Amino acid sequence: MKISTVIRRAPVIVRNAVRDLKYGRPLGGTAKTRYAHLGAFDGGNSTWDDMDRLFAGIRIGADDVIVDVGCGKGRSINWFLDHYPQTRIVGIELDPDLCATTARRLRRHANVSIVCGDVTELLPVDGTIFYVFNPFDGAVMARFAEAVAATRSGAPATIAYLNCKFVDVFESDPRFEVRMLDDPRLSFRSAIVTLR
Q1: I need a labelling partner for 130 at 20 to 30 A (CA). Which of 22, 72, 138, 141 fits?
Q2: How many domains does the chain have?
Q3: pLDDT tens for residues 8-26?
Q4: pTM higher than the cut 0.70
Q5: Residue 165: is it exposed, middle or buried by C-beta count within 10 angstroms (0-12/13-18/19+)?
Q6: Which residues contact 102 (CB under 8 A, 6 or more apart)?
């Protein structure tokens, strides 16, 4: 990262690190994937600010189950714990080493489970809120959309999609409704996708 970028982003980096400390340690940096051949991208961390903005219009109740798709180091799970400490949270991560590290860090939270493997095969049937921060390519996104529709079997589901590079997968599928977010403070183009 360029020094000018670090200086410009310093306040956000510090805010994220301080908030992460409540859940073990700062989680900055990119996790390089060993699974690009499976369509996986390097893992980044959502900022707490982006999570605040992305979820501002999503109602999450006590009976919801939050699924962090490609949870990586688990910063998003930190955010969910901070805002919904009693809600069941499932993180799914393809990389077993990253998965084990994240599971170990969050093991004291009884409402959190970290599952290792392919998200398209591991979606919990009771998942209702899915968080996606561009973890994989369009082919895998199409499989994910299919898995959500099949797993939910006509029950509602909401997908909060930060950095929605493959939103066309949902836009072209009549089972889903896409609402693009217009908050200019979001770091990435984002959408809320609803399974009808």
Answers
A1: 22
A2: 1
A3: 778 888 888 888 989 999 8
A4: yes
A5: middle
A6: 71, 72, 73, 74, 77, 91, 93, 114
